[in-house]
Amino acid sequence: MKVVAYCRVSTNSEDQLNSLENQKNHYTKLFEKENLDVADCGMLYKKSGEKSFLYGIYADEGLSGAKDYEKREAFKKMIEDAKKGYFNKIYVKNVQRFTRYIKDGSSVLKELKKYDVEVFFEDGSLSSLNPSHELFINMFTITAQEESRIKGAAVQFGIRESQKKGKWTGGVHPFGYDLVKGYLHINNEESEIVKVIYDMYLNKGSGYQSIARYLNDDLKVTTKLGKQWSTKQIGSMLKNPLYKGVQRTHMTYVDDINSGTVKKVPEDKWIVHYKEELKIIDSEVWELTQRELAKRKKMHKDKVRPSNKHLLSNLLVCPKCGVGLRRKKRKAYVRKDGTSRDLGYEWRCTMNDRYGKSRCENNNMVIEKEIIENVKNKVIELKENKQKIDEKIMDVIKAKFNPNVDEEIKKILVEKEDINKQEMTNLNLLTKGIIDEKQFQKQNDELQKQLKENEYKHNKLLRLDEEVKELKFNYKQYINLLDSVDVNNLDNATLKKLIISVYVFASNKKAIETKFNLNLADEIPFYII
């Protein structure tokens, strides 16, 4: 009978590595002492991905038994070799070494039984081929699984407590920051690269791919892990609010440590810290970037290519179908001598120009020179009369931000208390048998939904002052930009900071609706006639 042994340690710490070495020494001596016929196969698998041959022993280093056995390469190799008939018996210290998950453990043992391969657990002298031992093996596996669950819950609790203190617990810390005693601190050198990424995307019109190529080929900088930049990493950085000083944690949690199931946490349960000391990108620039991301996403959907080549690139919108307008050279009459008059450029609905009236009925064209002139006049008008924007800002604050915050919070807390009372009443009705479990669950789900809505409103009110401050800050930044703009030397990047979009109505009135970029929850439209 050919035999092998299986060893495992859950971490690659020095103590655990010593434990693995002790396990290997134990089986080497056991094989010699019992004069067992050791199979000429085995593997040592390290968490780093390194594999090496290990005579008669399969060992996984730095991998938990609670994880799916598919992640344990040595374990997986052992099962494959068992099916090939390389050995007939596997020695394991105890059930916990073999598995901490009843579903995986049970299925593997049944699979090995088909091939007459025995798993022998030294603690308790239990054999997987002995029917009378099956109950004990399952019992020990369930106990191990429950121990893992309790341990996992304790770990999750510890992580949440650290997150509440403002510590970073999200694995590798983001590019642009260092991790000092659990807290993030700005890395000055990397923060400059972060600014370059945002500047290229927002002001130069660069895409993910061109930014990644610039970092890899021109600047020759690497990621936190020393690897080449990818488009996915660029996109993730541009969307990360951490760069404007908003640290969000507890967005996901491990629902079952034994299966490794990760679930999303409702947004109102996230742990959020507003840290001015972590701000690398101004709030205004970050918000403008989010708008640009949303705009390009829509353009991609509409098969319109992002551009900053011309003054009005990606700013003009068809009011009929909502798709951007495209720039075209105006056709002029050709004289007999072959010359023609330069009529400049016109803009047409992209959908109509490409596919005709079947996709959009707006087949009108607008002359570029006229649009530019109208937009310039509107910017001049705003520069000279800022009172109009002031009035709009005050209207938004009055409409969206209730001044009676304390009263609103009191009402919400009373509502929360009523919901909690209804939950207790619902539970009492179930206990007394007045309602069945199905009715209880239905009512409880509805109460939980109301509770979440209540908490969301509460959190929003608590942040009200910050939202008002941010709105006023954005307004101040906008006015500063407006004051500094030279209307005779406008470029596309500057215009995009001032204007979100221009809806062009080609009618007798030559009206142009311009939505100016004030970073508000709702865009404020102004009309040019």
Automatic annotation (TrEMBL):
Residues 174-299 form the Recombinase domain. SMART domains: Resolvase. The keyword Coiled coil applies. Pfam families: Recombinase, Resolvase, Zn_ribbon_recom. Residues 365-392, 437-481 form a coiled coil. Signal peptide: none annotated. Residues 2-166 form the Resolvase/invertase-type recombinase catalytic domain. CDD domains: Ser_Recombinase (cd00338). Keywords: Coiled coil. InterPro entries: DNA_bind_recomb_sf, DNA_bind_recombinase_dom, Resolv_N, Resolvase-like_N_sf, SSR_resolvase, Zn_ribbon_recom_dom. It comes from the Bacteria. The keyword Coiled coil applies. GO terms for molecular function: DNA binding; DNA strand exchange activity. This is DNA invertase Pin-like site-specific DNA recombinase. It comes from Natranaerovirga pectinivora.
